[in-house]
Amino acid sequence: MTNVQRALVLAAFSALLAGCASNGSTAKKEEAKPAASAAAADAALTKNVQGALAKEDQLKGAKITVAATTDGAVTLGGETKNDWQKYLAGETAKKTAGVKSVKNSIKVPQ
Predict the structure, then answer these.
(1) Rounded to whole angstroms, how far apart are CA atoms 56 and 86?
(2) Residue 94: how many other CB atoms lie within 10 Å
(3) Neighbouring C-beta atoms of residue 93, cutoff 10 Å
(4) What does the alpha-carbon distance between residue 108 and residue 30 come to, in Å, rounded to a whole number?
(5) Phi and psi of 66, rounded to 5°?
(6) Contacts (Cβ under 8 Å, ≥6 apart) of 108
(7) What is the pLDDT of residue 17?
(8) Could you give the CA distance from residue 109 to residue 103 in angstroms, rounded to a whole number?
């Protein structure tokens, strides 16, 4: 094998390795984008539901937590003073744009 042939084989092998390395990093970047986008949508939906609950005068003093997922499912937790507040919180969350379902896990003290 001549020096020219060795150089060509080495160059081809190097190009092959470089191509493999760049495909892996591109795939990781593409996977990270949907995860970041989903997290942003999740945070926005949570904030919107919290804002809607805060506007309800009848929910003042209630300690309600909101957890949202990317598919529009919202889980309410925490505690309200009575069953009416629990119901109102659930209905308010359902009416919030982007919410597809609500799991109302709010506790009412006995």
Answers:
(1) 12
(2) 15
(3) 24
(4) 44
(5) -130, 130
(6) 79, 80, 81, 82, 83, 85, 86
(7) 61
(8) 18
So what's the pLDDT on residue 56?
97
**Residue 69: predicted pLDDT:** 77
If you average pLDDT over every residue of the chain, what do you get? 83
* Phi, psi values for residue 63, rounded to 5°: -110, 85
Q: How far is CA 50 from CA 14, 79, 93, in A?
A: 55, 14, 8
- pLDDT score for 30: 58
Residue type (1 letter), 37: S
**Exposure b/e, 41-50, CB count within 10 A at least 16 = b:** bbeebbebbb
In this predicted structure, what is the pLDDT of residue 28? 58
Q: Which of 78, 63, 74, 81 is CA-nearest to residue 96?
A: 74
Q: Which residues of the chain have pLDDT under 70?
A: 1-34
